Amino acid sequence: MTWVVANCRPGCIPKAWAMALVLAAVAALPAMAQERSDTGRRKPPRPAPVQEVERRRDADEPSARALEADPDRWLAGVGLGLGDSGVLFRVETLSGVPAAWGPVGDTRFRASRFTATMDPGADISAHVARRLGHGRWWLRGEFASSAADVAAEALLGQGGEVYFYDRATFLALGLGVEARLTSWPSHPYAVLAVAACRVAADRYAGLADSGLGARAAIGYRQRVRGIFLGIEAGLTRIAIDISDFRPSIAEAQEPAFSYHAESDLWRTDLRLVASRRW
After folding, report:
1. CA angle 134, 135, 141 (to 5 degrees)
2. Average pLDDT of 184-208?
3. What is the pLDDT of residues 65-82, one digit of tens each?
4. In 3-state terms, the chain is what percent helix, strand and coil (to 5)?
5. Which tens digit of pLDDT belongs to each residue from 218-228?
6. Which residues pair with 76 in a beta bridge?
7. Sign for the pseudo-dihedral over CA of 7, 11, 13, 19
8. In DSSP terms, which residues pair with 138 in a beta bridge?
């Protein structure tokens, strides 16, 4: 380059500089290509191996696979606990004068009004279930029996008193579905069933009635070796009709009174349950 510049005429010096600039630009093209801005294009990632895909699927679907691998088809168990119900009926004399309540000639208590309510009582149950397919649903049948005292909550002046009125017995036969809420051996579950119920009383036959009801329950089973131990809480609505019943008055002169019977009996239960599957 020095020789070219030294031997050129004065007019050719600009041409020499132009040629030098062109040569420098051509030499810089590869570097400029390497330093050009990112276009955002990327090579697609390599597909994961088949083993990796299966492993991810197992991680995403543990519940379905655990349920499919469960060979059990039958479930049977027994429960023991407490049951409680609400109000059966209310009575009030129209004049506000206390009346002698009880069988004819046998005064049990005196009050101007009282409410008959169910006390808590023992509850015994048994159930059998058959699994539907290979999923979490079971067809469940159950039988329950319980007994409780009927208490008369009477108004006496400014206070009140509670008297024994009768003893009632409940029998229920239900059919419904049970759903496991998780796939693990120890699991929570839910129950929804319809039930045919029978209510009977020891003293007053007019309190006896039969009706249909519905029961919803939720529970938990803990696996202990070959059996399951758990707890179950339920709520039952029983449609009964005791509107024709009239509380008896012991004295011959009966005062006029109003009587209101509940058309629905709400019953709660809490049971300790032992069951086995096979």
Report:
1. 95
2. 95
3. 667 677 889 999 999 999
4. 20, 55, 30
5. 999 999 988 99
6. 128, 276
7. negative
8. 131, 178
Q: Are 213 and 231 in contact (CB under 8 A)?
A: no
Between helix 50-60 and helix 62-69 the angle, nearest 10°, is 80
Those residues with Cβ within 8 angstroms of residue 6's Cβ, 6 or more apart along the chain or in another chain: none
Token pair of 157, please? 């002046």
CA distances from 126 to 157, 260, 271, 276 (A): 46, 34, 11, 12
* C-alpha–C-alpha distance, residues 107 and 252, integer Å: 11
For residues 32 and 217, the model is more confident at: 217
104 Cβ contact partners less than 8 Å away, ≥ 6 residues apart: 248, 249, 250
What's the number of CA atoms in the CB half-sphere (13 Å) around residue 152? 20
Mean pLDDT (whole number) for 233-238: 96
| Global pTM value | 0.73
Rg (CA), the chain: 42
Provide the percentage of residues in the chain whose pLDDT is more than 90.
64
In sign, the C-alpha dihedral spanning 73, 143, 275, 188 is: positive
